[in-house]
Amino acid sequence: MGHETILLHNPVLYEFEAMIEEFDPEFVLVNGHGGKNAVIVSDRHVILGIRGYSEELNLEVKGENVELMRGRDVYLWTCWAGRELAPALIRACAKSVVAYTAPFLWASADIPIPQRDHIAEPTFRAALEYPLRLFSG
Questions:
Q1: Which of 36, 96, 106, 132 has the fewest Cβ atoms within 10 Å of its own Cβ atom?
Q2: Phi, psi of 20, rounded to the nearest 5 degrees
Q3: Helix (H, G, I), strand (E, B), or coil: what is residue 35?
Q4: Mapped to the 3 state alphabet, what secondary structure does 102-125 carry?
Q5: Secondary structure letter of residue 1 according to DSSP
Q6: Is 25 helix (H, G, I), strand (E, B) or coil?
Q7: In a 3-state reduction of DSSP, which class is residue 61?
Q8: What is the C-alpha to C-alpha distance for residues 56 and 15, in angstroms, rounded to an integer?
């Protein structure tokens, strides 16, 4: 079973939405900083969210785009997104959603690449088990 991978580094909203619409992926892994109702990337761009104030991100989310995940398997590899965003994705008919309801943390030896950090690597590997198992059938 083959899979096509599209990797977006720090996308703005229109880039994220355009890639979802163009490639129509079955599985979407979103990694960034999460709040209860949104996910942002490093430039503080909301790429997936529902309206409302996010205390965790200290920002007001002004729009919603959860319908983009309709019929898809979604992994929100962020803090807090399991509180409100994940249930909203399920209501918008996402096929499945995995998300965290608390901060996603791991210990580190201060090596920036988790795979090379002997302390962070086991948690990093465990966090990727869901998408790896999903891909392998």
A1: 132
A2: -65, -45
A3: strand
A4: CCCCCCCCCCCCHHHCCCCHHHHH
A5: -
A6: coil
A7: strand
A8: 24
Residue 94 in contact with residue 73, Cβ under 8 Å? yes
Beta bridge partners, 59, equal 54
d(CA 74, CA 12): 19
d(CA 120, CA 137): 27
Question: Pick from 14, 100, 18: which is nearest to 6 by CA?
Answer: 18
For 14-47, write each residue's pLDDT tens digit: 999 999 999 999 999 998 999 999 999 877 899 9
pLDDT at 75: 95
With contact defined as beta carbons under 8 Å apart, do 37 and 93 qualify? Answer: no
Place of tokens 């979604």: 74
